[in-house]
Design a protein that fits this description.
Distance between the termini: 34 Å
Largest sheet: 6 strands, mixed
Radius of gyration: 20 Å
Strand content: 15-25%
Structural class: alpha/beta
Oligomer: single chain
Number of helices: 12
Length: about 350
Amino acid sequence: MAKTILIINPGSTSTKIGVFEDETEVFDETLRHSTEEIAQYDTIYDQKDFRKNVILDVLKEKNFDINTVDVVVGRGGLLKPIPGGTYATTPELLEDLKVGVQGQHASNLGGVLAYEIAQEINVPSYIVDPVVVDELQDVARVSGHPEIERTSIFHALNQKAVAKRFAKESGKNYDELNLIVVHMGGGVSVGAHKNGKIIDVANALDGDGPFSPERSGGLPSGALAKLCFSGKYTEAEVKKMINGNGGFNAYLGSNDMRDVVKMAEKDDKAKLVMDAFHYQLAKEIGAMSVVLDGKVDQIILTGGIAYNAITQEYFKEHTGFIADISIYPGEDELLALAQGALNVMNGVEEAKDYSQY
């Protein structure tokens, strides 16, 4: 019998929800939250009841009976570093989401909301492949100074989902493949997948790797230190330059690749920035091919920017010599969350215990 799955994926100004029957989407909704609504709350956790009520109200409006749900799945947040997989929403996991052990982000509410709704209807709840998935090999953690260690924060949910999708469509096991997955959205990440683990990836949130539409990526450290102590900017302003007002936003005033492409047709500066975006990502693909000893089964492009024809052609021309390229544009995170829960519900894998890591 098909499992009915409720999925909750909170973002900074919206909450995406979906209902699936196994892997078939019944419906999805993006619930928008105004700046004024969010501003009422001092912390992200304080938004919990507000978002929960909005979710339940919309389900009622759609005449959906919450009691038909078999499992509730939430997007994972900034927990401690853990391997990829599906995790039960245990007390320790929920507490770490509440306090934000690696920072505050709206995704921290995903597991909490899933747990509370699931408790009310007496069904299990899980999170799947949160952004803190950490499967780095030890050598990848060394930064160059012992005070700073390289950390793994990236688009794990979508990276894992498209990698497994490619494996399935190829008639192969994910655990047997070497893949380079390139996620391109508001942030970007390039992961080296070796035998089912992402053994190297840049911190896509906090100033590492290539720049993106909203993030600066890795900046020259000496120049960054000078800027920090120039007296011109507060710590908060510098952090916003790194994450939010970096990349395309800083250079061109837009975080939309479609705008950048139009600008590049008429403006040399915009074309240079667009070329640099592709150039840095291509360099990172090359670096990850070295991580995999040159044995790359496939390069996979994903995220919203993967729809762009110029982007697709650039990587085919500049990185196609490394491996063939597959394109899975967009971010099918709701389906990825559903699949993670189904694997546990159907006995394909066991739910991981957060307290063991």
